[in-house]
Amino acid sequence: MTEQPIPRRLPNRTADERTMLREWLEFHRATFARKLQGLTPEQLALRSAEPSAMSLLGLLQHHAEGERWMLGCLFKGEPDVPYFSPVDFGDLTGADEAVVAASWAAWYEACGRSREIEAAASLDDMTAIPGPWENEPVSLRWLLVHVIEEYARHNGHADLLRERIDGISGW
Question: How many C-beta atoms lie closer than 10 Å to residue 41's C-beta?
Answer without folding.
Answer: 19
